[in-house]
Amino acid sequence: MSRFETVLITGANRGIGLAFVKHYSGLAKRVIACCRVPEHANELHSLEASCPSVEIHTLDVTDNKQIEALKLAFNGQVIDLLVNNAGIYGPKQNESQLDKALWSQVFEVNVMAPILIGRALSKNLALSPHGVIANMSSKMGSITDNGSGGASIYRSSKAALNAATKSFALDHAGLGITTVLLHPGWVQTDMGGQNALINTQTSVKGLSEVLEQVNASKNGHFYNYDGNLIPW
Questions:
Q1: How far is CA 76 from CA 24, 30, 62, 124, 175, in A?
Q2: pTM confidence score
Q3: How many angstroms separate the CA atoms of 17 and 79, rounded?
Q4: Which residue of 118, 145, 161, 214 has the smallest Cβ count within 10 Å?
């Protein structure tokens, strides 16, 4: 069971995003699955063919025109849950070779896009009796948790997402929207690698249980997939 009748997911063609699509479509919920290149999303198309509640939409999260088109496509429609899942790690390279252009690209995907998409769909979420935005962050964005250094590009993007999301949460609370940050765990995906501790199904099962408990008192908080609060 889920209280969310309509769920929109970005980065829905693989990994955690695809697992979210499977989870909510399995509950017979309307799932708006957004990805950058739908023609390459074979597994997502198979889901759409077998499950009438799944809709695939083209969305490059860095393309303002596509974000505006998404807004117009769902004008006046209720969205109960927005999962801003799309994200990139960036270059896994020596810290002495940081590239400003690549750093900017990671910020555009990981920080700017979730906030702009949240703003674009805020009226849809405000129509829901319990509109929730879940921005996929990472424990690597926690300054308190950083005991090893490294990964400056990815860490800084997720720390910036945390800060921007906190402001977004406060700014949009008056619309009845609750916004939270989520850490999916170390997950067996293209980003996490096959040595990661949990699979996508375990991560999404935990995250979905966390989301079912989200209410106004949790606005702006940062949660692990097991429900524990994460220090900033």
A1: 22, 16, 24, 6, 15
A2: 0.96
A3: 17
A4: 145
